[in-house]
Amino acid sequence: MSVSRLLPFSFLLVLTLACASDPAIDPPCTGPDCDITADITEEICTPNACGGCLTLSQHPGESCGDCGVLTCEGEDALRCEDPGKNACGGCTALQNSLGGTCGHCGTYVCDGLDALDCDEKPNSCGGCSVLAGVKDESCGECDKGKWVCISENSIVCEGDIVNECGGCTVLSNTVGRACGTCGGGRYECDGQDAVICAGENETNECGGCAVLQGTIGDPCGLCLSGTLACNPSGSALMCVGAVTECDPCNPVGGADGNETLATARNLGSFADTNNAWITHSDALHNSQDVDVFRAHVNDTFWGNMELIAGLRNLDANLDLCVYWTRDDGKTVTLECPDAEPITKNGIKGCCSRNLGTTDETVTVVDKTAAPGGHDSGTIYYEIFTGESGLGCQHYDLVFRF
């Protein structure tokens, strides 16, 4: 250890001078320890802030890093003691955790860089749970309802309106309601926001709903001088352009055109409550002529359909057959109380074949089972003769229901 580390500088200086002024007393010093002056010069320094001799680039206490301060690390070095920034980006230690719970339904949020604040955010019903909606705001598939609180942590959508088809538009009609110009239809959903009438009965060729007897344009009337056309309401066909007088014994072209069931002349449409006799006067223009007429009968009365027809005012042996078909297409079960059963072209009927000029009478009773009594149909009247060589023979066809 050097002497300068143990003795004051002034004391060393006196000792050096004394030793140099009296060489006789003390012989000259030899060795490294005698050069005291040189040793003193080497050890003298100005201490730094940490007590060492090295020059420091900064000073203890200065800022460093994000939030640090320089401190001495020994006598000749510094180190940065930096805790880093807090959760809000500042350097002050926070008293609580950012995002931690506080208050009733709050969480801690930053209040600047160095403080926290309790952010109270209860839901719209006053509770703390996350709700499906916000009180009083609109809701539902059609956005016509409102969110209503049922507790502080529960909410429901009330008052939304969805139509019967699952859409939001007000429908023009109720699903399942009867529809159609001629009935038979029901409203069904057409997508989610509309309805359509499905299954409705088709209108006839005249735009009406009744079953037309005949075909538009067919010949009709006396001597087939007219044609069938729609009546004003579209409910039936009427004969247009027929003459009021003609000679059935001399038909135009030698034939009257109503010789078969398919070409039967239409006499009209009637109700089964019509008990009055209806008369149609005509004539067979020769022995080979056959006259066939038809009429439609609407069932309006409960019970079996009973059809009565006859030939009156005969001058020769004429015969009468009556045939019956149902609108519902069912196989007909007939009774012929005063005539003989017959089938022609698959159509069942009854025939009266009295001899001579005796009146012919035919009663047809439909015994077909039909719940509700819906026995409407078409009746055919066929007038003919089994005699040969006859000239024109007049007759009155009478019928009722």
At a glance:
The chain is mainly beta and 401 residues long. It has helices spanning 9-21, 36-43; strands at residues 63-64, 68-72, 78-81, 101-102, 106-110, 116-120, 138-139, 145-151, 154-158, 178-179, 185-189, 195-198, 219-220, 226-230, 237-240, 265-271, 278-284, 291-298, 305-312, 318-326, 334-335, 340-344, 347-352, 360-366, 377-385, 393-400. Among the domains are: 3-43, no CATH class; 162-202, no CATH class; 247-400, Jelly Rolls (Sandwich), CATH 2.60.120.380.
CA gyration radius, whole angstroms: 63 Å
* SSE pattern: HHEEEEEEEEEEEEEEEEEEEEEEEEEE
Strand count, sense and barrel status of the largest sheet are: 6 strands, mixed
Whole-number mean pLDDT: 85
Write the CATH fold name of the domain at 247-400: Jelly Rolls
Q: How many beta-strand elements?
A: 26
User: What structural class do the secondary elements suggest?
Assistant: mainly beta
Q: Tell me the strand percentage band.
A: 25-35%
For the largest sheet, list the strands in their spatial order: 16-18-25-20-23-22
Global outline: rod-shaped
Walk me through what this model shows.
It is a single chain. By secondary structure, this protein is mainly β. Among the domains are: 3-43, no CATH class; 162-202, no CATH class; 247-400, Jelly Rolls (Sandwich), CATH 2.60.120.380. 5% of the residues lie in helices and 34% in strands. It contains 2 helices and 26 strands. A 6-stranded mixed sheet has the order 16-18-25-20-23-22, with no helix packed on it. The protein has a 5-stranded antiparallel sheet with strand order 17-26-19-24-21, with no helix packed on it. The chain is rod-shaped, with a radius of gyration of 63 Å. It starts with 8 loop residues before the first helix and ends with a strand.
